[in-house]
Amino acid sequence: MMHPALDLVVAALEKIRETSEHAPRASRRALAQLQFIAPGKREMLASVRERVRGCTKCAHLARSRTQTVFGVGSPNAEIMFIGEAPGADEDKQGEPFVGRAGQLLTKILKAMGFAREDVYIANILKCRPDMPVGSFGNRAPTPAEMQTCRPYLVEQIDIIHPKVLVALGAVAVEGLLGTRGTMRELRGRWHSYNETPLMITYHPAYLLRNQAPSEKRKVWEDMLQVLERLGKPISEKQRSFFT
Ligand code: URA
User: Which of 23, 122, 194, 195 is deepest in the core (most CB within 10 A)?
Assistant: First the structure.
């Protein structure tokens, strides 16, 4: 991890570069030099990933998992999607959101104009919640499991520093903010996590269970708000999806 003081200096220099086309040449040179000695986001994420890989804080999950599921996407992503926990497919493949719900999330991203590599996708839990032997399906993470694993997600968010966070479902919200609520009251409006705008929407698994166009439209309207917040162009065709 980069020293916090160095972090501040890099942030300040980046601000100068962003806010002024005519940033003093010296500060641009200093930034280039600092970036040479300071680890980049990719390296910082790799170091957290290594700690996650060896994590045994939840002994029961460390025993039952095939592997940890850290996160996927661009370290420079403007949007970060946060789900609950890996399911059976993710546990097998080591990548978040690759099962049926994940394929739907990938379609939603595509409709927004993004590929999976353009955004960052992670979960509150990095291990699949264990299931009794011989049983199917997934279980929700417990509050204790979420509290134990949360610091890893916090590090991911701090490193990536996205412009917008999207929490998928009430469990992800509970894991991130520690507050419980119904999706009816939470979704469709801006919240905030450490001053980063946070949009809350339904988990794609909900859309698989409830195929009504009205529910798809709700998620889509939430994603339109995200695109607007990022200043992305939105076509008329995009605006009218699921109407
Ligand atoms: N559901 C989640 O919340 N996360 C995944 O990675 C897969 C399904």
Answer: 122
- Helices 25-37 & 4-19 angle (0-180, nearest 10): 140
40-239 domain in CATH 3.40.470.10? Answer: yes
Beta-bridge partner residues of 193: 196
How far apart CA 35 and CA 41 sit, in angstroms, is 10
User: What separation in Å is there between the alpha carbon of 237 and the centre of ligand 1?
Assistant: 29
CA 30 – ligand 1 centroid, Å: 41
What are the extents of the domains in the chain?
Answer: 40-239
Amino acid at the residue 228: E
Query: Residue 219: what residue type?
Result: V
- Candidates 65, 66, 84: which one to mutate for ligand 1, based on the most atoms within 8 Å of Cβ? 84
pLDDT, tens digit, for every residue of 162-220? 999 999 999 999 999 999 999 999 999 999 999 999 999 999 999 999 999 999 999 99
